[in-house]
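Weekly structure sync, notes
Attendees: PL (lead), two postdocs, one rotation student
Agenda item 3: pending single-chain targets
PL asked that the sequence for the first pending target be pasted directly into the notes so everyone works from the same version. It is reproduced below exactly as submitted, 176 residues in total.
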Amino acid sequence: MLAGLPFDTHDADLGREREKATRLLQKFNTLTLFDGAYREILRELLPNTTTECLIRPPFFCDYGYNIYIGEGGFINFNCVMLDGAPIRIGNNVLIGPAVQIYTFHHPIDHLERREVEICRPVTIGDDCWIGGGAIILPGVTIGPKSVIGAGAVVTKDVPEGGVVAGNPARPITPRS
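Predicted structure, written out during the meeting:
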């Protein structure tokens, strides 16, 4: 799975890992940023993430341990991160509400799709702003200091300092 190769979606070990994450998410999503258990559960759910980030519940992921969020990161309400492959989010990244980040890519062939999945990592550089409702697809890299418009569907890499919007996301010239 982590190597980007097809893997068995019914693997028992992966099922147990998803179940663990689901139980932690159930607890996490009942908390506020001010509850004492917030940081403790966040550390257990996302062990590779700095404790200096803020995630506003509700939040959803598959495993948690494939998510890396840098210092000063802010994840707003109702975000979904399907982390079959690593999701690397740099420092000082702002992610709006209802953003979805997917690493899972399903085979086109319907018979193959019943048995296997493929995951490709997503990387978001430092100082990016991801607008509310944006969707970032598997394998995408967003360069540092980029802006993703609200509701954009990002299907391709975004260069450093890029500003994209739309479906599919395309470069735009920002208004002053």
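Discussion points:
- The chain has a mean pLDDT of 94.
- The two ends are 43 Å apart (CA to CA).
Action: rotation student to compare against the earlier draft before next sync.
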